[in-house]
Amino acid sequence: MLTIGELAAYAGVTVRAVRHYHAKGLLPEPERDNSGYRRYDAGAVVELLRIRTLAEAGVPLARVRELLQAGEEEFAAVVADIDRRLEAEIQERQRHRERIARLSSGDGLALPSEVVAFLDRLRALGVDERIVQAERDGWLPLAARSPGRVAEWIARKQELIADLEFTGFYLNLSEALEQGDDDRSLVELADRVAAYLTNLANEQGEEYLGSPAGIEPTFVELMDALAFDTVPSARRLIELLKQRGWDGWTVLHRTPGSHVTPPASS
Fold first, then answer.
1. DSSP designation for 253
2. Separation CA 172–CA 174 (nearest Å)
3. I need a labelling partner for 132 at 20 to 30 A (CA). Which of 2, 80, 216, 232 fits?
4. Backbone dihedral region of 64: left (phi > 0), alpha (psi from -120 to 50 degrees) or beta?
5. CB-based burial of residue 219 (10 Å sphere; 0-12 exposed, 13-18 middle, 19+ buried)?
6. DSSP code of 66?
């Protein structure tokens, strides 16, 4: 026979908890023996373990009392339901862990997983981290402002970087960052990018390059400014592109009255 302290120790709870369960009618309180102590048998240990397990799983104490009196089938059904709920909570916590872990790579908590995958892809391709940061800084306010359209926009980006020629522009811009004030490489890059954009617009339509559409001009300016502050060479590249019939970093569009002729196919 066990004292209340021994019972609590066996079940891994406090004496206070045992008394609380007594008060709630969950655990029968035995009569005192001749020495004035309440003594508990092994059955009380089993019952207390059941109470503790259900309570720790989040079952309200009022419901615990019902379950302790329920038949085997009802009890098994409730346990299965608790298991499903705990599994959902585990998955949700795992998602939180993954988002927290992204802090170490600087991608932040606010970026959807599709955007994080896109940024990781740029890094894997060898794109300069400053350019990756500029992309990330643009996606942060965009995802916060229009979360429902991120999947659509990032799918377009993924299509573009699947094109080796387009990916080459990222890498060429990375090289230009290392060359400082050497404008020649940017001029050559602007020539190639303008020709590429013209071909793409002719094949896919200019709307294809206009993503993300529907964003206010002031917001586009904000995202452009974030990119230019991080990658000064990008500002110069856009100036050169504007001379070649294209303008914009976040939203690309033809300049009014431009007539850029794509190079002949070989």
1. E
2. 5
3. 216
4. alpha
5. middle
6. H
| Gap between the Cα atoms of 173 and 134, Å rounded | 12
Which residues share a beta bridge with 254?
246
22-26 average pLDDT score: 90
Q: Token pair for residue 7?
A: 């019972």
> Which residues, in sequence order, are CB contacts of 82 under 8 Å at separation 6+?
54, 57, 58, 59
| pLDDT tens, position by position, 85-142 | 888 888 888 877 776 665 555 555 568 888 888 999 999 999 988 888 888 888 888 8
pLDDT over 70 percentage in the chain: 87
Mean pLDDT is lowest, of 56-70, 200-214, 218-232, for 200-214
Please report, for residues 178, 195, 239, the alpha-carbon distance to residue 117 in angstroms, rounded to integers and kept in the order given: 26, 29, 30
Report the chain's terminal Cα–Cα distance, integer Å: 95
Rounded Cα distance between 55 and 77, Å, is: 17
Spatial distance between the Cα atoms of 239 and 178, rounded to a whole number of angstroms = 19
Query: 118: closest CA among 132, 101, 99, 102?
Result: 132
* Residue ranges with strand state E in the chain: 246-247, 253-254
- Distance, in Å, from the CA atom of 39 to the CA atom of 125, rounded to the nearest integer, reads 71
Give the separation between CA 213 and CA 220, rounded to whole angstroms: 10
Q: Which two tokens stand for residue 184?
A: 């020649």
pLDDT score, position 19: 93
CA–CA distances in Å: residue 174 to residues 41, 73, 111, 189, 234? 75, 66, 23, 11, 10
CA distances 176 to 86, 185, 249, Å, are 52, 6, 17
What amino acid is encoded at 94 in this protein? Q
Structure-token pair, residue 103: 């802090």
Average pLDDT over every residue of 145-168 = 85
